[in-house]
Amino acid sequence: MKAAVVGAGLMGSGIAQTCAQAGFEVVNIDTFPSAIDKAKANLEALFARKVTKGSMTEEKKEEILGRLTYSGSFEDVKGAAIVIEAVPEKIEIKKDTFRKVDEAADADTLIVSNTSGLSISEIASVTNRPDKVMGVHFFYPAPVMKLVELVRGLVTSNETYEKVKEFAGQIGKTTVDAPEYPGFMVNRILVPMQNEAAFMVMEGSRPEDVDNAMKLGCNHPMGPIELTDFVGIDTMLATMTGLYNGFHDSKYRPCPLLETMVKAGHLGKKTGQGFYKYDEKGNKIS
Ligand SMILES: NC(=O)c1ccc[n+]([C@@H]2O[C@H](COP(=O)([O-])OP(=O)(O)OC[C@H]3O[C@@H](n4cnc5c(N)ncnc54)[C@H](O)[C@@H]3O)[C@@H](O)[C@H]2O)c1
Question: What whole-number distance in Å separates Cα of residue 167 and Cα of residue 28?
Fold first, then answer.
């Protein structure tokens, strides 16, 4: 069975790898040749390390890589049973991609989006097959994380949902049904927790106390403040603002400290300064 993945960035390349490892013939499409070169080089390096360590045989590596091809043309979605879109989180780019995939794909191909929070119904509306469109939200890194959220649009058919759920199982993922509301399921629970943690720091709690409270008191592998620094304060604030604007509910009010930090350019690990300080290699120094 053939699957196509559109977008060869952080998520798309991992999703393509996941599908190829599960036995699918995969084409990974990206309009930027440099993205394809990077995805290819990263995967080859990753598999080479696995072979050196003995966790993958040379034959297995060749077998998986042999199922994965790369392309710059949307025409190559032809013959795919499912197309998974993982292009940037901008509604106009998503719509443009769905229009092109819809035009090139076979009539019975399912087209799913890995969007983190855009409306599936809106994305589906630009196609001639809105009943065959839905959301399949993977988590980073896609080959490792076991969960995918299944998000039905307003007119996604039961048949599409069942087939996509079966596909998710075939690539080794566990699914949850998430509503088509901001944050879907995981982020709607997780991000307000990080926001509340930021409120506590704003009120005077030490970041390390907040992190230790959740790591040692709830067995979280990473504290909410560390996690916010890790994903980027701007990204976390954007998700929280999306919840606030989407639900029109004050319980999702973004923490003002986050807004100030973003204005100051303190975006977390990626800028070397967030709630904590980091060195050039990204190690926490204070
Ligand atoms: N990064 C995460 O942790 C994460 C987790 C879950 C979901 N997502 C979602 O996955 C999607 C992709 O995110 P990402 O982090 O992989 O982004 P990314 O920027 O790493 O990758 C996007 C890729 O799309 C390519 N691209 C841009 N325009 C294109 C077009 N018109 N046609 C084809 N390819 C195009 C780019 O060259 C790039 O390789 C977004 O919707 C994001 O919200 C991201």
Answer: 17
User: How far is the centre of ligand 1, averaged over its atoms, from the C-alpha of 227 (Å)?
Assistant: 21
Record: fold of 187-271: N-(1-d-carboxylethyl)-l-norvaline Dehydrogenase; domain 2 (1.10.1040)
Judge if the beta carbon of residue 179 lies within 6 A of ligand 1.
no
Active site residue 187: yes
Which one, of 27, 72, 66, lies nearest residue 47 by Cα?
A: 66
- Which of 13, 113, 114, 187 is catalytic? The answer is 187
Which atom in ligand 1 lies closest to the alpha carbon of residue 35? Answer: 39
CA of 90 to the centre of ligand 1 (A): 9
- CA of 89, closest atom in ligand 1: 41
pLDDT tens sequence for the chain (286 residues): 999 999 999 999 999 999 999 999 999 999 999 999 999 999 999 999 999 999 999 999 999 999 999 999 999 999 999 999 999 999 999 999 999 999 999 999 999 999 998 999 999 999 999 999 999 999 999 999 999 999 999 999 999 999 999 999 999 999 999 999 999 999 999 999 999 999 999 999 999 999 999 999 999 999 999 999 999 999 999 999 999 999 999 999 999 999 999 999 999 999 999 999 999 988 999 8
Q: Where are the domains of the chain?
A: 2-178, 187-271
The Cβ of residue 111 has, within 10 Å, a number of other Cβ atoms equal to 26
> Which ligand 1 atom sits closest to the C-alpha of 94?
31
CB-based contact 234:262 (threshold 8 Å): yes
Question: 152 near 28, Cβ under 8 Å?
Answer: no
| Assigned token pair, 192 | 């307000």
Residue 137 is a catalytic residue: yes
CATH code of domain 2-178: 3.40.50.720
